[in-house]
Design brief:
Strand content: under 5%
Shape: elongated
Distance between the termini: 18 Å
Structural class: mainly alpha
Largest sheet: none
Amino acid sequence: MLKEYNAFFKRLMLFSDLCIVAGCFFLGGILKNEYIDFSQTNAYFMVLLVLLTMWGVALYYYGIYESFRTRQIGDILFTILETSLVVSSFFGGFVFLVELESIGRIHIFYTLVFATVSLCIEKVLLIYLFNHLKQYI
C-alpha cells in the first residue's frame, strides 16, 4: 500500500514540476512581449513538448524524486541547479540544431531561469510542509 502511495506522489510531483515549467515557458514569452503568432503555434508546442521532456527526464535521472526525508535542502537545490544546467545545454543545442527562429533566445533564457527559481521555491516549500506535517503524525 505504501509503495502505491509513494509512486502516486512521485507522479504527482513530476506532473506539478512539468506544469511549473510550462507556466514558466508562457511567462517567459509574456515578459519578452512575444505574443503567440497563431501561424507558429505548432513550433511553440513542439518546443514546449521538447522542453517538458528534457526537464522530466533530467529531474528523474538526477534523483529529485527520491525521498525528501533523507535529503537536505542544499542537496535538493544543488540537484535542481545541476538539472537546470544540463537542460539548458541540451535545449540550447536542440534550438541550434533545429534552427528555430520563431522563439527568441531571451524567451528561452527567461523560461530556464524562471523554471529553476520556481522549482527551487516549490521544493523548499514542500520540505518545510513535510517537516511540519511530520510533527503531527
